[in-house]
Amino acid sequence: MQFRSMIISNVEVSPGYRRMRMTAPPEFPAARPGQFVMVRVNEAIDPLLRRPFGIFDVGIHTPAQAGATSQPYLEMLYRVVGKGTAMLAALHETDLLDILGPLGNGFEFGSSGEEKMIVGGGIGLAPLYFLAKELVKQSPVRLFVGGKTRDDILCITEFERLGVECYVATEDGSLGDSGLVTEALGKRLAASGNKPRIFACGPNGMLNAVAGIAAKWGIPCQVSLEGYMACGVGACLGCVTPGHRHSNETPDYRCVCADGPVFDAAELKWEA
């Protein structure tokens, strides 16, 4: 769908990170965790291209005013890193945005009752709250979240309110364990001896390590990739990533936007 959306709130949740809530069409709550939207940040030519954002949450918004009508909403969690996101950060309540979505393929939840482990790094948490919200309806869920500093650890309280058990690691030791979040994941797997299902989103290096851990333990693992998307629908081929059969002789590329952004980790070619 392409639709006009009115901003309900746009608040800073940590230095450099913001959470935006906006109105959505009646059909939008049917979106799946892991899908994304393409946002035109203003009406001008510059910046020309839409920006992709994972869907942080969907739901029904009830305005505080007496007698006001409830309506569907979608939320995005984003980091202010360039011109486009700086423009988003400057927007206020009642400002309008042009949205295309929901797009892409989302996560497969797996079996009911099966333990689920979610791994997120920094802004990689963006699609994982929506996922956790669905998983806790049928399974115990543990979240492993990492960042360079405590400022990169986002929205932990919201996950805890869902009943998710949270483990935190920062590279500088300013919050939680000192080190990489993948180290915390490996320790937990070694201590429990269980074989849960893993879901991950974050920097490529983190996803590479998570995929390696999952392969070592023989655990099913899905990863949500980030890509430099121009169209969001697979037309421009600007966000391709190599599949597991890829070589110079037999190219095997997958579009992050159309084939993903969620993939089975075993489908992709990872660095050695």
| Neighbour order of strands in the largest sheet | 4-3-7-1-2-6-5
Are there runs of 5+ residues with pLDDT below 50, and where? none
Indicate the structural class: alpha/beta
Number of helices: 5
Spatial shape:
globular
Strand content: 25-35%
What is the C-level CATH assignment of the largest domain?
Alpha Beta
CATH architecture of the largest domain: 3-Layer(aba) Sandwich
Order of helices and strands: EEEEEEHEEHEHEEHEHEEEE
Count of DSSP strands: 16
Domain count: the total is 2
Query: Which percent bin holds the helix content?
Result: 10-25%
The largest pleated sheet is described as: 7 strands, antiparallel
| Ends distance | 39 Å
Estimate the mean pLDDT confidence.
92
CATH superfamily of the largest domain, called what? Nucleotide-binding domain of ferredoxin-NADP reductase (FNR) module
Q: Report the radius of gyration as a whole number of Å.
A: 19 Å
CATH topology tier name of the largest domain? Rossmann fold
Topology:
Blueprint (H helix, E strand, L loop, with lengths): L1 E13 L2 E7 L12 E5 L10 E4 L2 E5 L9 E9 L3 H7 L6 E8 L12 E6 L6 H8 L5 E7 L8 H6 L3 E6 L6 E2 L2 H12 L4 E5 L2 H14 L3 E4 L15 E3 L10 E3 L6 E3 L8
Parallel strand pairs: 8-9, 8-12, 9-10, 10-11, 12-13
Antiparallel strand pairs: 1-2, 1-7, 2-6, 3-4, 3-7, 5-6, 13-16, 14-15
Helix pairs in contact: 4-5
